[in-house]
C-alpha cells in the first residue's frame, strides 16, 4: 500500500485502521468468541500480562487492562498507552488509606536472607524452581505426599500479624530506619510533576510505573559492578490487600475492595564510617499485581539512586537519578523513539541543501604545518 | 670519568653516574603530520631537565614517548630498569608497567586523573608499596603518615577522601603517592599549572626540596619559564616538534641564542 | 520429549570439557566458554549445571547442595533435573558422592581424592566491584596487578578495624591469579587450600569457567599483621550440638528469638548419631 504522507493521507489512515479492525474483530468467522469473553479469558490465562499492563499504566482495573491488551493485539506497551490515556480522563475523589501490606494474606512470602522468618516461607505458585521444558506442567510427577495439601493451610485467619524481617533488624540496630516521608508536594507524581533532585517518594512512584525491561536492565547493571550494592532480599511478598478509604461524610474507614500487590524489601551493603555507625541500608520495591521481577529490580534501583543521600559517589548510570527517571517511562520513550516514523522531510530537505552547499565549495587544502599541532 | 657519548648541545653535569634516560633521534607522526622531529636528549641522576615550549610544540607527546605510553615512529628510547638501561621497545607490557609503578614516577597536571578519588588519602599514598609487595598494615600506615608529613599535609587528614582536599593538597597527595617508591626517574607534566600563584610557589619549593634530597633524575615539561628556572639545571626549548636550543638553565634563560627562545624569554620575564 | 544424556548434545559437552582441561592447566585463570541457555534461569546455577552436565557419566553419584543443604528448593530442583536427564544415582551423603554441585557452601565433611566439586558462580571476576570493565580487569590479571583489591582490604581495616568481607573472600591461587571462591562464606575458604578434590567453577550468565586442581595453594588475601580471620560459628548447633560447623540463623518468633543450626544438613545428620 503506497501512500503520500501528511497531505491527502486521510484515506490511507482510514484503511490502515480498517485493517486492524478486521484482525481484531473478523466478521466472517461464525465460531468466533464474543469480545467480552476473550477479555475474560485473557485475564484468566494471561494474568501476569494483565498485571504488567496495570502496573505500567498505574491503574488497577483488570477489565480495562484486558480490553486494552486485546485492542493492542498483545503489544503490552501499546496497551499501557491506551490505559494511561483512559486514566487521564478519570476524576479522583479520595486518597486511600496506606495499604497494610503486612496484614495481607500472602500467596507468596519469601526471604533469601534468612532460612525461616516470622510468618513462614511460602512458596506459592511460582516458576522459580520449574524446569523450562516445553510441556513441563503437563507431565508433573504426582505429589510425593498426597496427604500434604499443595497450598499451605491458612493458619487461623487474618488476625495473624507477623513482624517483618526489617523490623527485627531495626530492633537490633542493624539496619537504618526507614526514610520516605510523604508530603503534599510529592504525594502523586501524576498530579504534581517532580523535578530534580526528586524526593525518594517521587522516585518510588516513578519507578513503580516504569517500564519493566528498563528497570530490569538498569538493576542488572548494578549487580555487575556498575553501582553495585550487595543486595539480599529480606522479604518478598505477593498477595491481596484491602483498599480502604475514609469518606469525610462518613468519618470512618470502609473497605472498597482488594488488589494484588508485590512488595520487595531489600537489605543492602552496610554503610557508615566507623564500626559503630555501620548498618545495612534499604531498598524498596512495590508493584501492582504479581510481578516479582519488577519489584526486585525496583528495590535495587531505589537503593542505587539513594547514593547521594548515603554519601556515595554517583558513578554508574543506575545511580544517576536524572538519567534513570527521565528514561524509564515506556509511553514517553516509545512515543519519541517511534515518532521518527513521522514525516521529517522539511528538516531533512534543509540538511540536504546544507550538505550540497558544503560539498560545492571545498575549502582550500589545509596548511601543511599549522602552528600549534 | 667523563664520557663523550652525549649530544654536543647538551652539557653534562659532573657526575660519576651514567644517564638514566637516553633518547636518540626520535620521530613521531600522526598520519602525515610530523609531531616530533629528530629529538635527542639524556637525563642524569640528580638533575632536573626542563622541556619548555608553547602548547602544541610537541613536548607532551615527547614526554609520553619517554615514559613508554607512546612508541616512536623512528628512534630509540632507553630508560633505567631494574637491570640498568633498557630500550623501551624491548620491554614487555608487564615489565613496562612494573617499572612505571616502581622505578619511575609520573606526576600529571590534573591530580584527579592520577588519584583514586574514592579511596582514602593514605590508601592512595601506599598503593605503590602494596604493588611492590609490602603486606604489613602497620608499616604501610607508618609510611603513609611519614609521606603525608613530607608533602606538608596535616597527618590528621590521613584517612580523609581526596574529594575533601583543595587543588594544591591534591597535587601534594599525588606527589607523595608517586615518590613513595623512591623512583630513579621522575616525569613531571605541568605539575603546577592548574594552581593559584601562591600555592604554586609553595609546591615548587617542596618539589625542589624532595628532588634534591633523593638522587632522582627529573624530566619536567612546562610552558612556564619561571617554573623551569626555579627547578631545572638544564633546559631544552621545543618548537614545532624540534629541540631548537638546549643548555644550562641560566645560560638559556639569560643568554638565549635562538630568536624564538629570545622571544619566549623576553615575553615572559621582566626585562 | 527425549533429551541426550545430561541434556546437552555431545559436541557441546566436549567443548566445555576442553575449556575445563585448559582451566585445570592454568589454576585460577578465567576462561570463556560457549555457555548455553539451560532450562533453569541464569542465577540459579546454569554455570554449575553445564559443568556437571559436561563431566557426568553413567557411573557417577551426584550430590547437589544449596546453602549447604540437600533439601533446599533449588538443590532439589537441580537434583531432579539431573535425575531426569541422566538417570544417575543421587545421594545426600558427601562421602558417597563422586560429583558435588554446590551453591554457597563447601561440605563440612572433608573431601577426598577423586571427588569433583562443581561451584555455581554468579560473578567470576573477583575485581568487578572495584573495576566493572572486563577489558580492564583482564589486563590487571595479565599483569598480576591486584593492588586494587589490597587497597580495599587496607580501607576496611582503616575504617572498621578488620577486613569486612563475609563471603566471596578473594583468594590467590598458586601465587598467580586472584580468584573468586564463589559466594561461599569466608569460613569455608580454608577448605579449598590443598584440597584433594578437583574444584571447578562455572558462571553461565558470564560465560566463564575456572578450576583449582587437587592439592593447589588457595590463600585468602591478608596483611602480615592482620591475618585472615573468618568469623566462626556463633553457637553450637541446636540439633546436633556441633561447635565447629557453619550455622544458619533461624528467627523463631516475633520477639526475634534466634536459633542456630548446621547449614550442612548431611553433616548435621552424621553428627547427631
UniProtKB/TrEMBL annotation, chain A:
It comes from Acidithiobacillus marinus. GO terms for biological process: organic phosphonate metabolic process. InterPro entries: PhnI. One of its GO terms (molecular function) is lyase activity. Keywords: Lyase. This is Carbon-phosphorus lyase complex subunit PhnI. Pfam families: PhnI. The keyword Lyase applies.
UniProtKB/TrEMBL annotation, chain B:
Signal peptide: none annotated. SMART domains: AAA. Pfam families: ABC_tran. Keywords: ATP-binding, Lyase, Nucleotide-binding. Residues 21-265 form the ABC transporter domain. InterPro entries: AAA+_ATPase, ABC_transporter-like_ATP-bd, ABC_transporter-like_CS, P-loop_NTPase, PhnK. GO terms for molecular function: ATP binding; ATP hydrolysis activity; lyase activity. One of its GO terms (biological process) is organic phosphonate catabolic process. This is Phosphonate C-P lyase system protein PhnK. It comes from Acidithiobacillus marinus. The gene is phnK.
Automatic annotation (TrEMBL), chain C:
Pfam families: PhnJ. It is an enzyme of class 4 (lyase). Belongs to the PhnJ family. The keyword 4Fe-4S applies. This is Alpha-D-ribose 1-methylphosphonate 5-phosphate C-P lyase. The keyword 4Fe-4S applies. Its EC number is 4.7.1.1. It catalyses: alpha-D-ribose 1-methylphosphonate 5-phosphate + AH2 + S-adenosyl-L-methionine = alpha-D-ribose 1,2-cyclic phosphate 5-phosphate + methane + 5'-deoxyadenosine + L-methionine + A + H(+). One of its GO terms (biological process) is organic phosphonate catabolic process. It comes from Acidithiobacillus marinus. Catalyzes the breakage of the C-P bond in alpha-D-ribose 1-methylphosphonate 5-phosphate (PRPn) forming alpha-D-ribose. One of its GO terms (molecular function) is alpha-D-ribose 1-methylphosphonate 5-phosphate C-P-lyase activity. Keywords: 4Fe-4S, Iron, Iron-sulfur, Lyase, Metal-binding, S-adenosyl-L-methionine. It comes from the Bacteria.
Amino acid at each position: 500500500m503506497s501512500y503520500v504522507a501528511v497531505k491527502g493521507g486521510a484515506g490511507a489512515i482510514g484503511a490502515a485502521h480498517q485493517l486492524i479492525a478486521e484482525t481484531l474483530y473478523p466478521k466472517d468467522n461464525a465460531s468466533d468468541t464474543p469480545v467480552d469473553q476473550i477479555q475474560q479469558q485473557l485475564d484468566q490465562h494471561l494474568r501476569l500480562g494483565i498485571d504488567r499492563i496495570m502496573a505500567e499504566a498505574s491503574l488497577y482495573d483488570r477489565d480495562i487492562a484486558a480490553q486494552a491488551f486485546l485492542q493492542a493485539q498483545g503489544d503490552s506497551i501499546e496497551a499501557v498507552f491506551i490505559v494511561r490515556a483512559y486514566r487521564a480522563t478519570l476524576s479522583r475523589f479520595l486518597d486511600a488509606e496506606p495499604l497494610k501490606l503486612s496484614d495481607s494474606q500472602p500467596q507468596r512470602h519469601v526471604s533469601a536472607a534468612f532460612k525461616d522468618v516470622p510468618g513462614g516461607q511460602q512458596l506459592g505458585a511460582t516458576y522459580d524452581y520449574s524446569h523450562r521444558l516445553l510441556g513441563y506442567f503437563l507431565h508433573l510427577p504426582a505429589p510425593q505426599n498426597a496427604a500434604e495439601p499443595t497450598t499451605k493451610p491458612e493458619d487461623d485467619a487474618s488476625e495473624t500479624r507477623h513482624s517483618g524481617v526489617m523490623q527485627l533488624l531495626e530492633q537490633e540496630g542493624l539496619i537504618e530506619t526507614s526514610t520516605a516521608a510523604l508530603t503534599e508536594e510529592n504525594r502523586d507524581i501524576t498530579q504534581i510533576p517532580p523535578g530534580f533532585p526528586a524526593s525518594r517518594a517521587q522516585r518510588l512512584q516513578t519507578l513503580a510505573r516504569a517500564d519493566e525491561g528498563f528497570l530490569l536492565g538498569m538493576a542488572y547493571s548494578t549487580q555487575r559492578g556498575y553501582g553495585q550494592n550487595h543486595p539480599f532480599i529480606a522479604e518478598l511478598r505477593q498477595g491481596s490487600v484491602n483498599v480502604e478509604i475514609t469518606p469525610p461524610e462518613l468519618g470512618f474507614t470502609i473497605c472498597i475492595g482488594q488488589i494484588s500487590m508485590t512488595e520487595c524489601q531489600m537489605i543492602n551493603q552496610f554503610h557508615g564510617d566507623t564500626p559503630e555507625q555501620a548498618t545495612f541500608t534499604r531498598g524498596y520495591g512495590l508493584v501492582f499485581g504479581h510481578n516479582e521481577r519488577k519489584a526486585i529490580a525496583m528495590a535495587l534501583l531505589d537503593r542505587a539512586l539513594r547514593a547521594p543521600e548515603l554519601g556515595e559517589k554517583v558513578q554508574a548510570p543506575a545511580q544517576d537519578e536524572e538519567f534513570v527517571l527521565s528514561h524509564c517511562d515506556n509511553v514517553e520513550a516509545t512515543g519519541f523513539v517511534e515518532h521518527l516514523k513521522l514525516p521529517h522531510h522539511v528538516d531533512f530537505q534543509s540538511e540536504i541543501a546544507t550538505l550540497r552547499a558544503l560539498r560545492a565549495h571545498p575549502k582550500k587544502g589545509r596548511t601543511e604545518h599549522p602552528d600549534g599541532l | 670519568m667523563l664520557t663523550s657519548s652525549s649530544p654536543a648541545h647538551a652539557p653534562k653535569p659532573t657526575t660519576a653516574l651514567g644517564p638514566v634516560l637516553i633518547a636518540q633521534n626520535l620521530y613521531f607522526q600522526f598520519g602525515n603530520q610530523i609531531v616530533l622531529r629528530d629529538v635527542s636528549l639524556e637525563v642524569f641522576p640528580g638533575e632536573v631537565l626542563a622541556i619548555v615550549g608553547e602548547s602544541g610544540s610537541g613536548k607532551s607527546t615527547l614526554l609520553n614517548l619517554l615514559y613508554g605510553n607512546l612508541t616512536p615512529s623512528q628512534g630509540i628510547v632507553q630508560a633505567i630498569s631494574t637491570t640498568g638501561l633498557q630500550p623501551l621497545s624491548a620491554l614487555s607490557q608487564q615489565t613496562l608497567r612494573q617499572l612505571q609503578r616502581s622505578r619511575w614516577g609520573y606526576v600529571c597536571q590534573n591530580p584527579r586523573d592520577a588519584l583514586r578519588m574514592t579511596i582514602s588519602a593514605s590508601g592512595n599514598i601506599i598503593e605503590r608499596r602494596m604493588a611492590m609487595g609490602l603486606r604489613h598494615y602497620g608499616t604501610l600506615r607508618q609510611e603513609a603518615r611519614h609521606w603525608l608529613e613530607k608533602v606538608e599535609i596535616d597527618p590528621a587528614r590521613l584517612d580523609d577522601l581526596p574529594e575533601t582536599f583543595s587543588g594544591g593538597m591534591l597535587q601534594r597527595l599525588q606527589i607523595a603517592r608517586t615518590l613513595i617508591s623512591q623512583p630513579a626517574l621522575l616525569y613531571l607534566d605541568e605539575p603546577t599549572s592548574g594552581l593559584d600563584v601562591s600555592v604554586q610557589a609553595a609546591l615548587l619549593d617542596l618539589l625542589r626540596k624532595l628532588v634534591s634530597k633523593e638522587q632522582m633524575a627529573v624530566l619536567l615539561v612546562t610552558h612556564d619559564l619561571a617554573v623551569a628556572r626555579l627547578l631545572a639545571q638544564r633546559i631544552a626549548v621545543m618548537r614545532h616538534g624540534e629541540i631548537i636550543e638546549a643548555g644550562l638553565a641560566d645560560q638559556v634563560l639569560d643568554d638565549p641564542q635562538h630568536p624564538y627562545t629570545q622571544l619566549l624569554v623576553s615575553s615572559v620575564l621582566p626585562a | 520429549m527425549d533429551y541426550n544424556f545430561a541434556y546437552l548434545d555431545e559436541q557441546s559437552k566436549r567443548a566445555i570439557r576442553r575449556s575445563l582441561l585448559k582451566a585445570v592447566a592454568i589454576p585460577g585463570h578465567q576462561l570463556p566458554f560457549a555457555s548455553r541457555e539451560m532450562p533453569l534461569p541464569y542465577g540459579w546455577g546454569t554455570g554449575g549445571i553445564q559443568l556437571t552436565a559436561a563431566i557426568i557419566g553413567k557411573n557417577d553419584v551426584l550430590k547437589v547442595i544449596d546453602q549447604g543443604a540437600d533439601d533446599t528448593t533449588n538443590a532439589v530442583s537441580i537434583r531432579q533435573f539431573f535425575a531426569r536427564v541422566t538417570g544417575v544415582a543421587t545421594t545426600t551423603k558427601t562421602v558417597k558422592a563422586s560429583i558435588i554441585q554446590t551453591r554457597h557452601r563447601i561440605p563440612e565433611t572433608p573431601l577426598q581424592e577423586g571427588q569433583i566439586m562443581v561451584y555455581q558462580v554468579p560473578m567470576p571476576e573477583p575485581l568487578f566491584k572495584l573495576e566493572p570493565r572486563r577489558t580492564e580487569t583482564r589486563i590487571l590479571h595479565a599483569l598480576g596487578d591486584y593492588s586494587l583489591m589490597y587497597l580495599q582490604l587496607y580501607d576496611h581495616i582503616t575504617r572498621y578495624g578488620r577486613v569486612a568481607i563475609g563471603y566471596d573472600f578473594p583468594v590467590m591461587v598458586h601465587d598467580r591469579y586472584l580468584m573468586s571462591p564463589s559466594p561461599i562464606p569466608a569460613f569455608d575458604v580454608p577448605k579449598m587450600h590443598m584440597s584433594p578434590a578437583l574444584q571447578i567453577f562455572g558462571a553461565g550468565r558470564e560465560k566463564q569457567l575456572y578450576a583449582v586442581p587437587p592439592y593447589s595453594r588457595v590463600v585468602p588475601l591478608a596483611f602480615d599483621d592482620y591475618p585472615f580471620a573468618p568469623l566462626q560459628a556463633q553457637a553450637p548447633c541446636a540439633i546436633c550440638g556441633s561447635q565447629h560447623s557453619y550455622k544458619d540463623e533461624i528467627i523463631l518468633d516475633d520477639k526475634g528469638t534466634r536459633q542456630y543450626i548446621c547449614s550442612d544438613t548431611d553433616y548435621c545428620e552424621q553428627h547427631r548419631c
